[in-house]
Amino acid sequence: MREILVLIDELLRGRYSKPQEKLEEPLDVLIRTILSQNTTDRNSHRAFANLKRKFPLWEAVLNGSEKEIEAEIRCGGLSWIKARRIKEVLGRIKKDSGALSLDFLGKISLKEARDYLLSLPGVGDKTASCVLLFSFAQPVFPVDTHIHRIINKLGLWANRLTPKRIEEIVEACLPRERFLSLHLNLIRLGREICKSRNPLCPHCPLKEMCKYYALRFPGESR
Ligand code: SF4
Q: Which atom of ligand 1 is nearest to the CA of 200?
């Protein structure tokens, strides 16, 4: 499996290049990922940008009212739930660490850091992994809807896999320096080519290894 995953990463790097590795502020990643739940990339980016414009500091978000926060993130959907979660999460972090910062996650083990993130309200596997990968360069592999769809279309395993199972397999097999590029380039492939409706298979760099392609275009693969 390691060879296949490395090959996928190489093919995607060949199409999209190797993404720049630049650590991001962990609270930004956490809140951005909470805002991305159950909405489109475009709407969640707008919601995050609106929130940062109105409240440049997370301290101001913590001290703001749910109504004020909700007004800024409304375009991202489920705004009343997300506004409450964001305030709860910021409140918990401040109470637990004494500051509005997640920098302490870099000083504890990967397991402890993941467990802490998962203990926060509304934070699941994908959100926790995004923080650990984008902000601490840990060898974790967040699986979003694009990655889940692509991996199952490729049909590398006999059965459809859950996001959690994909995460476990990739984390066990892939060399750590490839986690970020495989994650980001699969998402890009999902946005541009392997769309949920009507994937543009003839343009896909992975078509030679894809079971869905072989079924949809018999005789054209391999
Ligand atoms: S060949 Fe088609 S289904 Fe397979 S990964 Fe590429 S776009 Fe998706």
A: 7
The response to whether residue 204 sits with its C-beta less than 6 Å from ligand 1 reads yes
CATH of residue 192's domain is 1.10.1670.10
Mutation test of ligand 1: which of 193, 209, 211 has the most ligand atoms closer than 8 Å to its C-beta?
193
pLDDT digits (tens, 9 = 90+) for 170-212: 999 999 999 999 999 999 999 999 999 999 999 999 999 999 9
Please give the pLDDT value at position 156. 87
Please report the DSSP string for the chain in residue order.
Answer: -HHHHHHHHHHHHHHH-PPP-----HHHHHHHHHHTTTS-HHHHHHHHHHHHHH-SSHHHHHHS-HHHHHHHHGGGS-HHHHHHHHHHHHHHHHHHHSSS--GGGGGS-HHHHHHHHHTSTT--HHHHHHHHHHHH--S-----HHHHHHHHHHT-SSS---HHHHHHHHHHHS-GGGHHHHHHHHHHHHHHTS-SSS--GGG-TTGGG-HHHHHHSTTT--
Q: What atom of ligand 1 comes closest to residue 189's alpha carbon?
A: 7
Residue 92 maps to a domain: yes
Low-confidence ranges of the chain (pLDDT < 70): 221-222
Look at residue 60 and tell me if it is in a domain.
yes
For residues 30 and 132, membership in a common domain is answered with: yes
Q: Note whether residue 222 is domain-resident.
A: no
State how many domains the chain has: 2
